[in-house]
What we know:
Strand content of chain A: 5-15%
Largest sheet of chain A: 5 strands, parallel
Helix content of chain A: 25-40%
Number of strands of chain A: 5
Shape of chain A: globular
Strand order of the largest sheet of chain A: 4-3-2-1-5
Structural class of chain A: alpha/beta
Oligomer: homotrimer
Amino acid sequence: MSEVKKLSIICFSGDFDKTVAAFTLATGAAAVNWDVRMFFTFWGLNIIKKSKGRKPLGKGFLARAFNVLMGGRAKLPLSRLNFGGLSPGLMTGMMRRSNVATLEELVSAAKQLGIPLVACEMSMHILGIRKEDLDDNVPEVIGVATFLKYSEDAQVLFI
Amino acid sequence: MSEVKKLSIICFSGDFDKTVAAFTLATGAAAVNWDVRMFFTFWGLNIIKKSKGRKPLGKGFLARAFNVLMGGRAKLPLSRLNFGGLSPGLMTGMMRRSNVATLEELVSAAKQLGIPLVACEMSMHILGIRKEDLDDNVPEVIGVATFLKYSEDAQVLFI
Amino acid sequence: MSEVKKLSIICFSGDFDKTVAAFTLATGAAAVNWDVRMFFTFWGLNIIKKSKGRKPLGKGFLARAFNVLMGGRAKLPLSRLNFGGLSPGLMTGMMRRSNVATLEELVSAAKQLGIPLVACEMSMHILGIRKEDLDDNVPEVIGVATFLKYSEDAQVLFI
């Protein structure tokens, strides 16, 4: 374990509630000076996809179909009781009323705290997502070897 | 890594089967003298909510509605093949017949082994769950900073 | 943290996409000389069950029913957008076209890299799965104490 605490979060699920948990842990750790990185893979890529524009994202017909069905960060489903997509909005309202940071605020905080949001190369290949489909502030697309190198002395969570 | 092995389990999902896995790992580790804590957040709060009483738990209409829909520890769903809530009962029967500890027995064992069951403050705010809605033997409600402080030299699992 | 990096992956979910992620991390880590083990529990046991033969696997009626409903490695569902089991096939096609290793190729690679695929005793009891229901190359069935002993100086992921 190195002197500086490190936290690697693998954001796999892309569920609204799990994403809130991931960013809460990430920003909380960065606030107490841990060295934090977030790795987005599979459905988690929805969190860092571009939200603007009407052109469907992705390369190839199936990739585009999957991308349309999945939507972006504004349409993450709840892992339970999603009610056809109604619940994340309800929950965001509950977060506002409780003075808890919303997901958008958590993502902004992560950027301000300098937490690198890194995309997983292999799952981008599988899902046909290109670098230009991702948010402009996603600094890196990496492979599993780079991830392991970074994480070898970090706490690692799979969310 | 400290001399005494530490294990932090973040119980997020509140699924019956994942909860059985979490308590099996927790009690197994405590039995060999690891220092174990379990942190309950989001749907995982269902595991440590009061089971008695007819008054709906929670603060505010939406919170109450969510709480009624989620039920408590006796109604955790299976993460798969739940069949409208039939399967956890079937599985408990299979556990009894196999002489494997049931979930209730695992929770009792965790308490006897002195494993602290800790609730996450932020998700309680979001879901409108109050301290008095939780089991009387939940000792603490903590924030993410306290969790990180405890977990900095522990193995951490997100379940 | 020992000199040789160790990685313990608890394969709980048995979802197609999460299983791809687990084997990608496992084979990637083994390729850079980490000491990797994969522990299969609950739905994850589907990944290492025998795929051949028409006799239903499992001990007892309920166990057999669950086993038929779950299918084996060839029938793992996607954790999202499964479309009644259509999607894993589509995704395998997308993986082939992207020259990404398919799940079967990843499992073969894990075996070639000498990664032990270990089964969890307790969940086999609960689900009524016997040693002879598992792939012939599953070397060990272990309990939670053995798992913890191995994992005490490893990175641990719950997938």
